[in-house]
Structures are given as structure tokens and as C-alpha cells.
Amino acid sequence: MEINNLKEKFTEIYGVENEFSFLSPGRINLIGEHIDYNGGLVFPCALDFGTYALVKVRDDNQLNFASTNFDLKVSCDLDNLVYKEEDDWANYPKGVIKIMLDKNYKAKGMDILISGNIPNGAGLSSSASLEVLIGVIVNNLFNEGKIDRVELVKIAQQAENEFVGVNCGVMDQFAVGMGKKDKAILLDCNSLSYKYADVKLLDYDIVIMNTNKRRALNESKYNERRTECEEALKIIQKEKQVDNLCKLTPVEFDKLEYLFKDEKIKNRAKHSVYENDRVISAFDSLNKGQLEEFGRLLIESHDSLKNLYEVTGKELDTLVEEALKVEGCIGARMTGAGFGGCAIALVKKDKIEEFTEKVKKTYAGRIGYEPSFYFSGIGEGTHQIFETNKVSLEKTV
Ligand code: GLA
């Protein structure tokens, strides 16, 4: 949909013209999976497609939410923001505004139209994209843009943890809010210190592959994995005082492995420690342009998520397996929470067409339906769109 069509849609729904427009990206994580909540390093980047919002400020305290992606429209009062199951997607914006008000930031009533290009439940952070989007709207329109971006990122995460009830780490909101064009973010999730890294893929590109198996994070085993990691940390702490699993090096972990009686808990911890180490190596190899090595680390990461952390499943494993069989693909792994959703593959640019054709066929042959492929540059974090910017909403995924 072109921005003009979206503007028309806004007028159709609300009977007035919108005043402001915003865009918030989705994200992929290059490597460092399921360790943001273990104080680890992650390496995500923002996509160049995401979620749009058109906004008109109201004179009263009413919040109206509509979306081109869902039929459900929700209206509520700024003074009474409570989680309601039936409000479905609108709980994300409600949660962010509620937390901002609780922190004494200012907000007013608004008419909002959301339009997202990120497939829901595909592991590309459609919810974080929406959360940070709302945070930036409230910041720019009512708080003179003075709220620090990392504070907005934390508010968005808090909304998901406390209002929606998904115990996610900070990676997604950080990638969405802090993304920079053509850069990946090396983020230490313990201290929230970060640095940007150029993503120089030389003759290669990243292909995003969707299993098309829907994943619902709050119904998934996500929270269970977090609990298992807490259990693992307690076991380690009997011998070594560390605040989180990712403080350990692989060598230190190997020496303490004997402490674990339960193989499953040991495996969860092992994944976390080794994955953290892989992020450091991956950052290094990308910097040096050693893409074969970078690709090898992606493969190792997927194997660990499959065998030790057990968050992949038949669809993701098949997709990665089939991708790696194609000439020109030097690395592939699931990205995000797993249990379905998306994987990424590092593929030689001149082989991409052949790659998608082959993977489409072989995956469909084994799973029964086709995967989808998305191509995205690395985009900017959440921002306001000023009318002079010629932005097309046509960027389909
Ligand atoms: C989801 C969560 C993130 C992170 C990833 C796994 O995307 O929202 O915080 O834990 O899963 O790396």
C-alpha cells in the first residue's frame, strides 16, 4: 500500500486526516540466540521493512487503535489501560503507553492506524517493532523527544514482560530501536553496552527464509527455557560466583560440567556459554571479511540450538538442511525464538535465484508447503517520517 493509500485509509476510519507518520523496523539476529536473557552477547540488525503508524492527536483521553493487518479495532481510555485478552494486538501499544504514564512521562489521546509488513509470528520481531514504535510516538509527540532511546527500548521490553506476559530479553527491542543503516549491533545484554559493526558481505547476501510455520511466543517453550537456564545458573553458582551463564568461558564451563546431574539442564547451559563465545568469533570474522568462517559459525549455532537448546523443530531444521545443500550457501541458522518462524542463509549473490528455487522445492517436498523468502537491506531504527521523505509502503516481504 502506498503512503497515500494509507493516509486515505486513516481518513476513512477516523474521519480526519492524520498529522504524523512513523516507521519501526523488524529485525534479524545474525548470531547469539537465546542468550540475551543469560547476560550474553547478541548480534542483530534492523531490517528495512517494518511497521508504520499514522497518528492524529486527540483533544480528549481516548486512544483508538486500528490496523490494516487485523480487523479488530480497539478503543480505550488513557486512565484505564489494562490488559484484555480480547484486545489482542492492541495490548502491545496499550502496555507501552501504560508503562510510560507510570513513569510519569506525558501522553494524550490519539487516533492511530498501524500497518505492518512484518509477518506475524515469524520471528522477525513484529511485536517489538510495534512496541518501540509506540514509545517513539509518545516520546516525539508529547515529551519533546527527550526520552533517551535506550530507556524507550527498556520500556518496550517491560511492556512485553509485565503487560503482555512474555518474558523476553532485550535484544529485539534494542535492535528495533537502535538499528543503523548497514550496521549490525554487537550488544552486551548484561551491561547494555554496544557497538556497531559494518556488515560487509562481499559476494554474499543474507536471505531470510520463512518456514511458514507460525510460532506464538507466549504459547511456546520460551519461558520454560528461561527457567531451565536459571536452574543451570544456580548449579554453577555452587562452585563459582557468576551473575549469569554467559560470564563463563567454554573452558571454565567444561571444568564445571560435572556439577550437572540432569543432561537437559547441562545442555541448556552449554549452549549459552558456547553461543556467547561464537558471537565474539563471528564478530571478528565478519570484521576481517572471513565469510566462510562466519558461515561456519552460523551452522554451529543452529546445530547447538537444535541439539542442546532444542528450540528448532522439524521445519526449521529441514529449511536449514536444504539451504546448506545448495551450492553457494555457506551458512544458515534459525533466527529469533525458534519453534518455527524464520531462518537466515548466507548465499553467494549470483546463486540466490537458483537457491530460492531449489530450497522452495525441496522444503515443500519434505514439509508439504512452501517456505517464503525475503530480501532486506539493513535499515534504520524506529523514526518519524517527515512528509518530504518519499517513502513507499510498497516494500512487501
Ligand atoms: C525472542 C525474544 C528475544 C530473544 C530471542 C532468542 O526473539 O524476544 O529476547 O530471547 O527470542 O534469541
From TrEMBL:
Enzyme Commission designation: 2.7.1.6
PROSITE patterns: GALACTOKINASE, GHMP_KINASES_ATP
Domain spans labelled Galactokinase N-terminal: 8-56
One CC-aspect GO term: cytosol
Domain GHMP kinase C-terminal: 283-364
Subcellular location: Cytoplasm
Top EC category: transferase
Site-annotated residues for Transition state stabilizer: 27
Keywords per UniProt: ATP-binding, Carbohydrate metabolism, Cytoplasm, Galactose metabolism, Kinase, Magnesium, Metal-binding, Nucleotide-binding, Transferase
Keyword match Aminoacyl-tRNA synthetase: no
Pfam family, one: GHMP_kinases_N
Domain of life: Bacteria
Binding site for ATP: 67, 121-127
GO terms, molecular function: ATP binding; galactokinase activity; magnesium ion binding
Keyword Kinase: yes
Active-site residues, as the UniProt record annotates them: 172 (proton acceptor)
Domain called GHMP kinase N-terminal: residue spans: 91-180
Catalysis performed (reactions): alpha-D-galactose + ATP = alpha-D-galactose 1-phosphate + ADP + H(+)
Residues noted as binding Mg(2+) in the record, renumbered to the chain: 127, 160
Primary localization class, coarse: cytoplasm
Pathway participation: Carbohydrate metabolism; galactose metabolism
Role according to the record: Catalyzes the transfer of the gamma-phosphate of ATP to D-galactose to form alpha-D-galactose-1-phosphate (Gal-1-P).
Family, per entry: Belongs to the GHMP kinase family. GalK subfamily.
Record-linked HAMAP family: Galactokinase (MF_00246)
Name recorded for this polypeptide: Galactokinase
Organism whose genome encodes this protein: Clostridium pasteurianum DSM 525 = ATCC 6013
Taxonomic lineage: Bacteria, Bacillati, Bacillota, Clostridia, Eubacteriales
